[in-house]
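Input sequence (324 aa), recorded before submission:
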Amino acid sequence: MAEKIAIIGEIQAGNLRPITLECLAVAEQLAENGEIMVIFCGEKPSEIICQEISSYSAAKIVWTLLEEKERIVEIYNVSLQTIIEKEKPTKILLGNTETGKAVAPYLSEKLSCPLFSNIIGLEKKNNQIAARMSIFSGKLHQIINIELSSFIMTIKPNAFTLPVKKAQKKITLEEAKIDKKVPVFPLVKITKDLESKKDLIDAKVIVAGGRGLQNEEGYHLLQQLASSIGGTVGVARGAVDLGVADISLLIGQTGKTVSPDIYIACGISGAIQHIVGMNSAKTIVAINNDSHAPIFDEADYGVVGDIFEVLPALITELDSSNKE
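Predicted structure, token format:
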């Protein structure tokens, strides 16, 4: 049977999320001469998104429209299942994002298809696939040999290099018409946070704070530093427990897993539950008044000092440089 790989694409604020392109890179490794398709559930991909995807190896885009109040797990998952059962791909790839974590187990159970989660590396030799994933809260990596012809795989964001662009080609765009049943728990209202937050998973620079923030003043300094360098604010569990930050900003085992270019940890001790969510950052800078804090074991650069002294000085220096 010819290889056919389906990627569950993600669009955020009208833009294609980078994880979709990472899934395309993995699909290119797996497909050889097979067909690659991208499925969008929720909104029709824009012409710009279609052109971007056409620069890679995908030959087809399938999409189905979900109104805003229909974009809940119950309807989203069933709609994806319907498309996949029609298209019959041999492999399904999606990001290990909030969406992917909600979708992949459902599809695995409904399609009776094995699931491999949070893959961080892949090799294919002689039709055998060796997939690398982290285990024991990121303390170890294991390599598993996959000899199955069909499976579902979630890809850790920022773990794979984006595929090389090729010359744009004609790509098939197809709408899937799906009869949607009334959900058991319908969505009544969507309330959006007044504070605009950048998505942590796709962020290139993250400024994160922990219990060392102490109060609202410390959190405000964190926001100022992030603004000065065009970064995104994230937090460790300690900051959430203090009540100064929302849990949606949590990074770690029970929060988001990030892989930014630069990660600045302010007042974060470095508990393993936090480390597993950020230790794949390319460069880690730690600021802490305890020279023995475990975060320094992970850091490329460290500053031993009080964040209420270090951050204001750093912000002043950065703002001064930006004005020059």
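Checked by second reader. The chain has a mean pLDDT of 90.
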